[in-house]
Amino acid sequence: QGAVKRQALYACSTCTPPGGEPAGICLACSYECHGTHRLFELYTKRNFRCDCGNSKFKNLQCKLLPEKGKVNSGNKYNDNFYGLYCTCKRPYPDPEDEIPDEMIQCIVCEDWFHGRHLGAVPPESGDFHEMVCQACMNHCHFLWAYASQLAGKKIKISEQIFLPALTKVNSLEDEGIVLKVEESEEQKKEIKKESGVEHQETKEEKQTEQFNEPSTSSGSDFLNIYDYCSKFLQKCSVETAKTTSEYSFCKLKELQSKQFLKKDTATFWPLNWRSKLCTCEDCLKMYSELEVQFLTDECDTVLAYENKGTSDQETERRDPLMDTLNSMNRVQQVELICEYNDLKTELTDYLRRFADEGTVVKREDIQHFFEEFQSRKRRRTNRMQYYCS
Questions:
Q1: CB 324: neighbour CB atoms within 10 A?
Q2: What pairs with residue 131 in β-bridges?
Q3: Do 85 and 91 meet the contact criterion of CB atoms below 8 Å apart?
Q4: Among positive and negative, which fits the CA dihedral 6, 11, 15, 19?
Q5: How many CA atoms lie within 13 A of 215 on its CB side?
Q6: What is the pTM of this model?
Q7: With bands split at pLDDT 50, 70 and 90, how would you rate the model's confidence at 159?
Q8: For 5, what's the count of Cα atoms within 13 Å in the CB-facing half-sphere?
Q9: How far is CA 325 from the centre of its chain?
Q10: What is the DSSP string of 263-331?
């Protein structure tokens, strides 16, 4: 399948001992090709392709896919592939470490860290969803602007943040119907100029109407006011859209304009915090340069991976007979259940004879049973049916 978006990985210290090139193997190869070897569990890694049997393994050929590329250049490796974790570069579990401590995975570098080596006390279990370690916070410096708003806090579903600052519009005047809008001196001059031209045009239109056809003064005034307001509002909407596009589409710039603190610590983030990151063109380019494009992908999270596994297991456990029944009407359901019970009863009686006699059930015996069963079924369905008048 190539590089899998996220999968469980292992490192084999038997095939790739310390001092050699790091390599990772998938779950299937850990069973099929390295069943008796000493393995390190790496939990999950993103965008990784199994190395089993490639040039990093001198005396091993993959049993599942013998023909493989020599190297997987897209894979990323760290000390985890040698069974070492955290900034202390110790194994887990560590027989020399007597301090009970949990290990937390950084979602950027995907290394595992002791809670006491993060520079900050982790929140209580369940109060955060993901962690970014100290080194990755320095690498992804832009996250500090978000940290004051998101890190260590729970996001409410109804919470609206990063709202654009819109131009204020006051209420309408009683008769003049003039909108008071915050505007620059240049905009005022343009509006005065346009209003003067418009006023001159309306006077000419009035004179023309007086000569051509009779009309009420109230109707003419209404049309003039309506036309003026329409053009003025159109101009205001263009200016407002221009201001909004320049100001609000980059959430990061909005946050960076405010004061925020940078610390030499890890940060802890709540559920769905990734959806709050800016996805404007400049920010997407920055993510690409920092090689952290995955931060805007909600499906990249370990929780999404676990939920997918749970969903797949539920699908596998689902009874195909019940799925078929649910797609039928009641009459079809009753008929299928009766047929299933007949098959179950006759097959049980048929196999019991072999058990009583102590003989082996062969393929031919099963084929004979189903042929007889189908024959009896046809005889039943070919009988004459009687209907009440």
A1: 13
A2: 106, 268
A3: yes
A4: positive
A5: 16
A6: 0.59
A7: very low
A8: 11
A9: 34
A10: -SS-EEE-TTGGGGS--SHHHHHHHHHHT-GGGG-GGGSHHHHHHHHHHHHHHHHS-HHHHHHHTS-HH
